[in-house]
Write a structure and sequence with these properties.
single chain, Diaminopimelate Epimerase, Chain A, domain 1, 2 domains, eight-stranded mixed beta barrel, 17 strands, about 20% helix
């Protein structure tokens, strides 16, 4: 029986059995899309990433990313996880590489210590949304909402959009996905988060930052988010670390005025604590004229397992 090599790694953590687990399938150019999807369902993780030779000029390698239900054009923890895993495997030395994926060509910087910084795609921002259906989807009430006129619930992303719902810190632990409400309201990917600004020079206060505001001093953080990311309909209903959502959060924070509308701001996202997979995502967002123009997310990758898995029959 033919097999293909794979590795399991934990992403956005510096210790094993935390962060977000990822399956990395190597030398996948001989696999058809339905075979990739079958393997993703077998691993039964939030995402499985398949490594292929590049097609676009300038790309170092190409990836395809599958959940148990669908193929994604881009995702954060598969991108960071694949880059570090390929570097450790000898695919390229530490430094700057270019990942080719469904969202285009994305730059990634990989360190010898096993971390990577991913620059997301072009920022997008949706229209304000009624928070009531979103609150109902996670079992919270209007009193738990922490948004305002500017800090409205809305979608945002840098290659993969998520819906963002700001809540009070004490409400975050009480959030629980209601799959019936999620289906009724058509909620497919929801980031529920609380925000606290950092003290000190350059810190941002919710509602006060805007165009022309000072960015935090180099190496500092403008604030910290505690987040939970719900994905109803997938095998994993709550994601322990979501790089694409962390990128989109930066876009949302600038639009809400909770991060400066000019220059580069740093922020951190803590995720996964409620499901015993603590994760840390270090982020930056660059803004001009009150809108985000780019965002990055950085995380460590810890190897867990590797082996061979049988190639499923072709069902095309």
């Amino acid at each position: 029986m033919s097999t293909v090599a794979y590795e399991i790694v934990d992403v956005f953590t510096d210790r094993p059995y935390a962060g977000n687990p990822l399956a990395v399938v190597h030398d996948a150019e001989g696999l058809a899309p339905d075979q990739m999807h079958t393997l993703a369902r077998e691993f039964n993780l939030a995402e499985t990433v398949f490594v292929l030779p590049p097609v676009a000029p300038g790309a170092t390698y190409r990836v395809r990313i599958f959940t148990t239900e669908t193929e994604l054009p881009f995702a954060g923890h598969p991108s960071v996880g694949a880059a570090v895993t390929l570097m450790r495997r000898g695919g390229f030395p530490p430094g700057d590489v270019v990942q080719e994926c469904g969202a285009g060509l994305l730059p990634i910087s990989v360190t010898p210590a096993g971390s990577a910084t991913l620059t997301g795609g072009t920022p997008t921002l949706g229209d304000p949304l009624d928070p009531v259906p979103l609150l109902e989807t996670v079992g919270l009430s209007a009193e738990d909402h922490a948004g305002g006129e500017l800090a409205a619930s809305r979608s945002a992303g840098c290659g993969l959009p998520w819906t963002f719902l700001p809540v009070r810190r004490e409400a975050l632990a009480r959030a629980a996905l209601n799959p019936v409400a999620a289906k009724a309201y058509g909620v497919s990917g929801l980031t529920v988060f609380s925000w606290s600004e950092s003290a000190g020079p350059g810190s941002a206060t919710p509602g006060s930052a805007g165009p022309g505001s000072a960015a935090p001093a180099s190496g500092g953080s403008a604030g910290e988010a505690h987040a939970r990311v719900f994905v109803p309909g997938e095998a994993v209903w709550e994601d322990p670390a979501t790089g694409s959502a962390a990128l989109g959060l930066g876009v949302w924070l600038v639009a809400a005025g909770w991060l400066p509308g000019e220059g580069v701001s740093s922020y951190r996202v803590h995720q996964g604590h409620e499901i015993k997979r603590p994760s840390l995502l270090e982020c930056t967002v660059t803004a001009s004229g009150g809108a985000a123009t780019s965002a990055t997310v950085t995380g460590h990758v810890v190897p867990i397992a590797k082996g061979e898995i049988a190639i499923p029959p072709f069902v095309g």
